[in-house]
Amino acid sequence: MTRIGRSDLDIRPLSLGGNVFGWTADRDTSFAVLDAFHTGGGNFIDTADGYSAWAPGNSGGESETIIGEWLASRRPENVVVATKVSTHPDFRGLSASNVRAAAEASLRRLGVDAIDLYYAHFDDPDTPLEETVGAFADLVSDGLVRYVAVSNYTADRIREWISLAQAAGADLPVAIQPHYNLVHRTQVESEIVPVAEEFGLSLVPYYALASGFLTGKYRTTDAAGESPRASGAAKLATPAGLAVIDVLDEIGRAHDASIASTALAWLRLQPTVAAPIASASRPEQVADLIASMSLELSADELARLGAVCAKAQG
Q1: DSSP assignments along 243-291, one per residue
Q2: Which of 71, 167, 238, 259 is deepest in the core (most CB within 10 A)?
Q3: Each residue's pLDDT tens digit in the chain (314 positions)?
Q4: Burial 32-41 (b: 16+ CB within 10 A, else e)
């Protein structure tokens, strides 16, 4: 188990991404994925109120609804659920009234009394940060949210949020959710990690498998069109990117582990990272995610991956 920042949220070091629920995974498949994750020892689920409004026929909130129905059906113990606000079509932005209304809607969809970890999904330049910080603080004081977090914020804006919260005597964020993986490192490691270290925040990185590229599935740039996320992954199949896959493959074989498990294990072992986020559209994909939680890489293996990925960073 590991703990998220200064919170009392004890989690296994992997978060199951709920972005695919109601999109590439229907309700029954999503239930099967969630069952496999929980049976395998996972207890940390990540979603957002906007998932998956982009899919034809969806209006937002589909992922939260499926997770809520699964929670009600299975009644699992010690599950930590994180969700986010600012992208639902009905609740865009981070004004105080919007944050409150969105949180209440998320609570209804999830069927829980309080959101364990609530992220500001994207910074809102049209709303004073002081107003947003106050809105999140009110949710905590009213018992609707247990802990506050930020996603896709710059280091400067995170520091500003913390300064405002300190001045108001409000709860500080406990986690940051950045885009971070083996082939997308530079900005996070130079700017975000130092803030996390200074204030005792945990990183919960998304795109941990680079839209599937770090599973080893996409080895040519013409793989686009195979799935909704394939085009993004295929773009990374450059000589430098494929060199990363080759080293992951070699190291993984030494541990009898998959490329995906090895990539997630590398990320899990980086400074301030509490749990990488990875999703699965089919239950059979979950085993590799679960395996990453106990895969230990040596200092030499970490160094080899660090060296080869330096040329492939985005």
Answers
A1: HHHHHHHHHHHHTT--HHHHHHHHHHTSTTB---EE--SSGGGHHHHHH
A2: 259
A3: 999 999 999 999 999 999 999 999 999 999 999 999 999 999 999 999 999 999 999 999 999 999 999 999 999 999 999 999 999 999 999 999 999 999 999 999 999 999 999 999 999 999 999 999 999 999 999 999 999 999 999 999 999 999 999 999 999 999 999 999 999 999 999 999 999 999 999 999 999 999 999 999 888 776 555 565 666 787 888 999 999 999 999 999 999 999 999 999 999 999 999 999 999 999 999 999 999 999 999 999 999 999 998 876 64
A4: bbbbbbbebe
Q: Using CA atoms, how far apart are residues 61 and 49, in angstroms rounded to an integer?
A: 5
Cβ-Cβ contacts under 8 Å for 153 (sequence gap 6 or more): 120, 123, 161, 176
The residue with tokens 């330096």 is 310
The burial of 312, by beta-carbon neighbours within 10 Å (0-12 exposed, 13-18 middle, 19 or more buried), is given as buried
Q: Catalytic one among 51, 147, 180, 207? A: 51
Q: Which two tokens stand for residue 87?
A: 């992208």
- Tell me whether residue 206 is one of the annotated catalytic residues: no
